[in-house]
């Protein structure tokens, strides 16, 4: 009898081990200098993509081999059965996101009043503009990539602009739209019937043609159409999302080099602007505490609840801010208020910065681990997957570039605020982390928070409209 048992392979698939190993290696990679540039905390994302791809591939082999009673099979089964194919559970993802966003919001809250007064309307325009440009480029790409379907296009759009709430709207709209198409099959045009049959055939269950299904499809075939349509949204999002994230991270680190402006000077000018703008604004003096666990917990709970509220918006259906938007707005508002009775929300920036950094590296590592296989496999296994990846990168790049040009040269917004607004317009939390790290300050969080709700509205609106437009 052995007194010590150690199963290396099951431990290798353990989400705790994977997260910490990814973070450690990612931060080491982030320290490597490429000229004057280094990835910093974003290194966790890139290392996570590679590790996630390798781990998913190994777990898939173990799971398909069948139950042999081993610990590694149980861990692999957990990935595919309980986590819906994610290497790390969504609970870890949500927790890391809440820690990062809440700390960042509290850090940026002190300037919220001045920021809204000075830039408010401009942030509204940027939020709608960036999402509109992204939608336009995505739809325009269907004229280049023949055989596109509205479902995959909607997924590519939400992935390229890194929007989880947008994905939720796309999944809901796709299911509703697919049900309408499937039940109305007999009244479709011939070209639409061909597209519907092609969608049904995407699964392994059927190999149909319009010749043997000329009039109507069975209930089971209708269900297969809906299932495959929703899966197409998920596929487009999963493949394009990492490349959308990469676009924003690169933009935050390289726009200053490409457009030749000095980040240090931008920061200096920003603080001068804020000081002038705040002279005519009454600022309430708030006591700062080292850290208030009760206050911090209230921020997280209130934000999560706020993000869960569904608001009816007519043709758009029910819309919510999600965890990101809810926690960010709650932390900005409560941080701006400062305190309510015994609850203190204005805390030591050093402590909040550590929490922000911890949440960020976990968040980036989990994004890499969960999306690594889909992203890398799409690039190396098929031409269509590679096209989706390229589209995700191009759509994200054009959307953020247009936002930058309008924000900087038309609205004359300082880079400190504009960087946050661009990330808000892209609804990109990883990008916001890159912006705060590249600038060495937390002020971009206020621009992100002011732009995000309007970008979210634009994302949902244009995602729904995607299903109303003809695909070529």
UniProtKB/TrEMBL annotation:
Entry GO terms, CC: plasma membrane
Domain YidE/YbjL duplication: 19-55, 91-255, 297-466
Predominant place of localization: membrane
Membrane topology reported for the UniProt record: Multi-pass membrane protein
InterPro entries given in the database record: AAE_transporter (IPR050144), YidE_YbjL (IPR006512)
Entry coiled-coil feature ranges: none
Membrane-spanning intervals of the chain: 12-30, 37-56, 91-109, 121-145, 239-259, 291-312, 318-337, 358-376, 382-406, 413-434, 446-467
Keywords from the named record: Cell membrane, Membrane, Transmembrane, Transmembrane helix, Transport
Subcellular location as annotated: Cell membrane
Keyword DNA-binding: no
Family: Belongs to the AAE transporter (TC 2.A.81) family.
PANTHER family: K(+)_H(+) ANTIPORTER SUBUNIT KHTT, TRANSPORT PROTEIN YIDE-RELATED
Protein name: Putative transport protein
Species this protein is from: Aminicella lysinilytica
UniProt lineage: Bacteria, Bacillati, Bacillota, Clostridia, Peptostreptococcales
């Amino acid at each position: 009898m052995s007194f010590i048992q150690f199963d290396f392979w099951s431990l290798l698939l353990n989400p705790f081990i994977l997260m910490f190993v990814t973070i450690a290696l990612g931060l080491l990679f982030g320290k490597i200098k490429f000229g004057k540039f280094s990835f910093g905390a974003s290194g966790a994302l890139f290392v996570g993509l590679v590790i996630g791809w390798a781990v998913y591939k190994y777990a898939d082999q173990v799971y398909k081999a069948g139950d042999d009673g081993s610990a590694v099979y149980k861990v692999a089964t957990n990935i595919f059965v309980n986590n819906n194919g994610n290497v790390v559970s969504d609970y870890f993802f949500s927790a890391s996101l809440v820690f990062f966003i809440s700390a960042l919001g509290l850090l940026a809250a002190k300037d919220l009043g001045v920021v809204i007064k000075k830039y408010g309307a401009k942030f509204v325009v940027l939020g709608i503009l960036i999402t509109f440009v992204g939608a336009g480029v995505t739809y325009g790409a269907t004229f280049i990539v023949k055989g596109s379907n509205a479902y995959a296009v909607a997924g590519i759009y939400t992935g390229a602009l890194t929007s989880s709430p947008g994905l939720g709207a796309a999944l809901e709209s796709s299911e509703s739209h697919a049900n309408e198409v499937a039940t109305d099959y007999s009244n479709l045009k011939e070209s639409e019937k061909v597209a519907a049959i092609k969608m049904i055939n995407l699964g392994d269950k059927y190999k149909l043609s319009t010749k043997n299904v000329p009039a109507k499809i069975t209930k089971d075939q209708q269900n297969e159409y809906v299932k495959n349509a929703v899966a197409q949204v998920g596929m487009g999002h999963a493949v394009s999302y990492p490349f959308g994230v990469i676009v924003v991270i690169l933009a935050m680190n390289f726009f200053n080099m490409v457009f030749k402006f000095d980040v240090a000077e931008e920061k200096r000018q920003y603080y001068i602007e804020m000081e002038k703008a705040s002279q005519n604004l009454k600022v309430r003096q708030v006591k700062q505490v080292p850290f208030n666990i009760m206050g911090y917990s209230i921020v997280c709970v209130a934000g999560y609840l706020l993000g869960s509220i569904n608001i009816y918006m007519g043709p758009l259906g029910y819309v919510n801010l999600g965890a990101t938007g809810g926690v960010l707005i709650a932390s900005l508002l409560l941080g701006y208020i400062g305190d309510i009775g015994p609850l203190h929300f204005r805390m030591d920036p050093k402590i909040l910065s550590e929490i922000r950094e911890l949440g960020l590296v976990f968040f980036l590592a989990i994004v890499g681990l969960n999306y690594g296989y889909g992203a890398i496999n799409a690039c190396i296994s098929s031409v269509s997957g590679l096209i989706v990846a390229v589209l995700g990168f191009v759509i994200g790049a054009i959307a953020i570039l247009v936002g930058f040009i309008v924000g900087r040269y038309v609205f004359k917004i300082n880079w400190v605020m504009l960087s946050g607004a661009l990330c808000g317009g892209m609804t990109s939390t990883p990008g916001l982390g890159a912006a705060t790290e590249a600038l060495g300050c937390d002020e971009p969080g206020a621009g992100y928070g002011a732009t995000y709700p309007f970008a979210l509205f634009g994302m949902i609106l244009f995602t729904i409209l995607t299903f109303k437009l003809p695909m070529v």
